[in-house]
Amino acid sequence: MGPHLPKVIAEYFETDRTGSAEDVAALFTEDAVVRDEKRTHVGRDAIREWKANASSEYNYTTEPFAIADSAGRKVVTSRLVGDFPGSPVDLRYFFVLDGDRIANLEIVP
Q: How far is 8 from 5, CA to CA, in rounded Å?
């Protein structure tokens, strides 16, 4: 059993496992920003494209195992296991929420 996550963050990880890139993008605000692998994606269309590319490039699973607060952000640490170079790896997901949506997400090792 993992940590108790805020609803939209739990939905993010669940939708990443079971949903489409469109479903993942719908969890973000219209003008949300995602930073991953030193690239920045702004807006739902860019986030949908980012997720579609990431999901088609590698097979992976992610298991959140810790959550903390830092400077107004929810920091979720998760183990990512898959067929990508360097697997497995623990990543930190820095979420900024806006109501029931994600306004900002930064993913770093």
A: 8
Contact 89, 108 (CB under 8 A): no
Is the pTM here over 0.90, yes or no? yes
* Nearby residues of 60 by Cβ (< 8 Å), 6 or more positions away: 80, 81, 82, 83, 84, 87
The SS3 call for residue 25 is helix
Asked whether 73 and 60 are in contact (CB, 8 A), the reply is no
> What are the helix and strand counts (H, E) for the chain?
3, 6
- Residues of the chain short of pLDDT 50, as ranges, are none
